[in-house]
Amino acid sequence: MSGRKVVVTGLGVVSPVGSELGTFWDNIKNGRSGIGRVQQMDDIDQYPVQIAGEVKDLDVERFVGKKDARKMDPFSIYGVAASALAIEDAGIHAGNIDPERAGVLASSGIGGMQVMQKECLKAYEKGPRRVSPQLIPQMITNILSGYVSIKYGFKGPNFCITSACASGTHSIGEAMRMIQYGDADVMIAGGSEASVAMLGVAGFAALRATSRLNDDPERASRPFDLERDGFVMSEGAGMVILESEEHAKARGAKIYCYASGYGRTGDAYHVTAPDASAVQSARGMTLAIADAGLSVDDIDYVNAHGTSTPLNDKGETLAVKNALGEKKAYATAVSSTKSMTGHMLGAAGGVEAAIMALAVRDNIAPPTINYNTPDPDCDLDYVPNKMREMQINAALSNSLGFGGHNATLCFTKA
């Protein structure tokens, strides 16, 4: 497929390791963990899992009025904040865009879980007549895209993609396609999540998917390490501004990198477990490389899905080998920034796309922290514990979601 070139011109992140881009990137580069004991649940002692990556020190009123914030689920607040930061970073305003050529693809894997559980408890305790009229509009996953569109008057494509932990990456990839095909000139795209709550913590614990290293939270997220025992659930949002290169240059925008390639496949295998053969996750990477017009030899860095679960990390290691070939795979830097942020679920792809854009711009491969005991099944170069300065001309970012949803982005140097 050929089409218009797409560039990344703005980044906005709300995360456990910072909600200002400079702070966020400094913490990621220097391997600082955002994982700690859960603070927003008073009864956390009752849960087998008591740790998470929580958003800290976000000035909500900078982005959302106090009255509106009271009725919004936190996933919408985080997504609006990340979108505002990305738009500010890109220098976009009403005078330099056509609102009918600007769209929003802001997604979530779960949506308004906190609003839903609050109103559900209210219905059981006080009766159905006490349920808020805001329940439905605030819990649906697409409401974030609506909020952002309304806030900025963007009247182009406007919807969301819900594909579990691949939601943010799918959103950025599909937004890229819209610009390539000429459906829009500017897109805000990414994901948001706020599931550190009763149902989220209890549900993932029941699946035995999350780490139980409660007494040492900063070490709990250990992607590719032999002693990994599950992912650490986190919250936040990541949004990027994509533009056609022509549009960005016409308004004098700074350019982080090109959004050059996108691949997506389905395992057709299992509801929660990845296919051990890694054939389709590897094919997603191959499609992204081909879409960018590159060969495997051009890939310098892979931001792995790297959840810190036994099955994912083993399978993704095999996927990288299948996609790049063993010789190239062993020579390629692969790291999981979830070792610092935890797993932000539907927001992960948006946050990790921002990391990839910064890695390509600055020629820095972020580390995989807490990598201490090598696993024979995970034997690639995971950039252990310390960032690496290196030439990065082309990078991939993988996201793999429950249901067998695989998505890969390829960014290249501007």
Number of contiguous helices: 14
The helix fraction, in percent, is 25-40%
Q: Which structural class do the helices and strands define?
A: alpha/beta
Helices and strands, in order, run as EHEEHHEHHHEHEHEHEHEHHEHHEEEE
Quick one: overall form?
A: globular
CATH architecture of the largest domain: 3-Layer(aba) Sandwich
| Quantity of strands, as a count | 14
The N- and C-terminal alpha carbons lie at a distance of 20 Å
Q: What is the CATH homology-level superfamily of the largest domain?
A: Thiolase/Chalcone synthase
Q: Mean pLDDT, nearest integer? A: 97
Supply the CATH class of the largest domain: Alpha Beta
CATH T-level fold name of the largest domain: Peroxisomal Thiolase, Chain A, domain 1
Instruction: Trace the largest sheet across and list its strands.
Output: 5-4-6-7-1-8-14-13-9-10
What is the domain tally? 2
Low-confidence stretches: none
C-alpha Rg (nearest Å): 20 Å
Q: Which percent range describes the beta-strand content?
A: 15-25%
The description of the largest β-sheet is: 10 strands, mixed
